[in-house]
């Protein structure tokens, strides 16, 4: 009987842990990874939509940002044979300012890796690149 009680309590605890809300920095890391995957796939508008206040910039500046994103990818291609994979790292969350510093790991085509710091900001429960 005692064994059944312990199994039941263990199952309940597992359910609570599985259903718990993820930490803000975990959400920020996943969101940053998604934005950079958009960039790698050439979806520049989707990447820029993930930047804070993207909707309030003029069209000519938006096109300059698209050009900058393309140049960034071209530079990574020439220096490292491109970014082949993006992995999530850790992060820190500042509850007062609703900001996070998250880390992504870029794996390049030349076999090298680089840990990249990506500052993020949360507005209305949505994470944006700063």
Task: Explain what you see.
This protein is an alpha+beta fold and 130 residues long. 48% of the residues lie in helices and 28% in strands. The chain contains four helices and four strands. The chain has a four-stranded antiparallel sheet. The protein is flat and about 40 Å long. 15% of the residues are buried. The model is unreliable at 3-17 (pLDDT under 50).
List the helices and strands and how they pair.
Blueprint: H1 2-19, H2 24-40, H3 44-49, H4 59-80, E1 83-94, E2 99-108, E3 113-123, E4 126-129
Antiparallel strand pairs: 1-2, 2-3, 3-4
Name the features:
130 residues, alpha+beta, 28% strand, flat, disordered N terminus
For the secondary structure, the number of strands is 4
Strand order of the largest sheet: 1-2-3-4
Gyration radius, rounded: 19 Å
Low-confidence stretches: 3-17
Largest sheet: 4 strands, antiparallel
Provide the helix percentage: 40-55%
Order of helices and strands: HHHHEEEE
Mean pLDDT: 88
Label the structural class.
Answer: alpha+beta
> Strand content of the residues, in percent?
25-35%
Number of helices: 4
Distance between the termini: 56 Å
Question: Outline, from the CA principal axes?
Answer: flat
Short description:
This protein is of the alpha+beta class. The protein has 4 helices and 4 strands; from the N terminus they run ααααββββ.
């Amino acid at each position: 009987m005692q064994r059944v009680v312990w199994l039941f309590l263990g199952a309940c605890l597992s359910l609570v842990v599985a259903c718990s809300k993820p930490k803000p920095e975990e959400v920020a890391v996943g969101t940053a990874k998604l934005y950079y995957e958009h960039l790698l796939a050439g979806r520049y508008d989707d990447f820029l939509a993930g930047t804070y206040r993207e909707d309030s910039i003029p069209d000519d500046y938006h096109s300059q940002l698209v050009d900058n994103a393309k140049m960034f990818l071209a530079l990574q291609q020439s220096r490292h044979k491109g970014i082949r994979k993006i992995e999530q790292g850790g992060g820190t969350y500042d509850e007062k300012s609703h900001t996070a510093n998250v880390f992504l790991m870029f794996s390049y085509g030349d076999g090298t890796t680089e840990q990249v710091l990506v500052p993020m900001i949360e507005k209305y429960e949505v994470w944006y690149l700063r």
